[in-house]
Amino acid sequence: MPGMGNSELPIPDGLILRPFRGVRFAVDDPAKVTSPPYDLISDGDVSALLDAHPNNVVRLIVPGRPGTDAQKPPSDPSTSTDQNTINSDNPLVSSQSQIQVSPNSRYQEAGRTLEAWLASGVLVPDEQPALYVYEQRGPGVLQRGIIGDVCLPDPAQRIILPHEDVLPGPITDRLALMSTTQANLEPIFLLYNGQDGAATRLVDEVATHREPLVTAHTEDGLTHRLWVVTDDAEIAAVNADLHPRQALIADGHHRYATYRILQRREHALHAEPTGPGHPAQDGIPSNGREDDGRGAQDSEQVKRSPWDFGLALLVDTDAYPPDLKAIHRVIPGLPLEEAVARAKGSWRVQDLSDLDEGLHALHHTEGPAFLLACENGAHLLTSPDPLQLAQAMPADRSARWNSLNTSILTEFVLPKVWGLRDDEETVRIVHHDPHAAVQLAAATGGTAVILRPLDVADVLAVASGGERVPRKSTSFGPKPRTGLVLRTFAIR
Q1: At what angle do helices 106-120 and 168-181 cross, to 10 degrees?
Q2: 90 vs 484, which has greater pLDDT?
Q3: Residue 466 β-bridge partners
Q4: pTM for the full model?
């Protein structure tokens, strides 16, 4: 492949969305082979999705989960997790051994499944490269955007902005999957301010006047429609419009970080050897840091290398404002009574009769507030002691960052009030549903911490200032459905 002998990375000079030959399921009902994003799928969901169709995409995106063919090994090193969060412009796994994929691993099984489905016609590539207009519609929901191959600039270039910290464990997992399958199996979700530009006008014209390629009605009540855009002039107009714009990662921080690590590794694998033990041979710089953005200004290389792009959905927030929901926490093993008793030393605590009353009170409370709940009651935390709060919050962070409820939870409530770390072992995550959080708290002898959603303006301001909100602070929606269109590196 021309240009691949250079281990330096190409530097995109703007937001670029390249057409690609999508790979799609050839089934009568496309909804039955789709799934939610990989990180929202429970073991029960896997069983239900495979009951709907044996070729559901979960066999590819979460191999080794109960119900799929390959079971996760009990001590699979590729899923080991360093508990320290890392900034998503500096993502790396702690050692090369963590990203080795054994021949018998669950990821290898996903690769074999993908190859078999392509060979048998379960999956079929589209004949020519395209951008894909994507619509999600349902009660109170309408979102449209464009799916394509997005360029992978360094976050320091401020073209694609992360807003959340990431963890090595999920990056290791997705890296093993993408490396083995040589594919992007689900898009990341990007938001941008389109200002009624050419890309947005084309999206609406296509969705309003053209026949869809795919229509799928999923169990969540949404209808998903997909159109192809193959006209060179239309694709050029989209890219001319997008080029000067800035995009925010709404969902897919770990996958974007993985895209960039995979890009470095694949370039290094195709580069001329520079000597035994040279850092370029494993794709991870010897100083343990992400590259600083200096690389090859090579437009031909950008066009030719499949690893210089990643599958993405771009949505214009001016035309389709996002729905931002809260992500709740559960602290297993911390009984509600103990959590409340410890909080009384620094917070005002209001006792409430049940969860519904607590949710109403939380919604109507100004300033920092959390609802602690379990089966036997709910308690609203408000009015934190200002001196204790000020001492707990980092002095090197902006005032806006320090005012976020997830920041206060991470820096003050968890470590100072309860003496706990905010890591994957100590803190469980529950998306959106406070009742599900309470059920999990009851099952683990713990406490549910119910949060209000962040404001979109606060998230944008924090990201624009170069900061990251704490992990699992935001849940933008509706998220793209997985399985409508896939991307493999060999089919271009």
Answers
A1: 40
A2: 484
A3: none
A4: 0.82
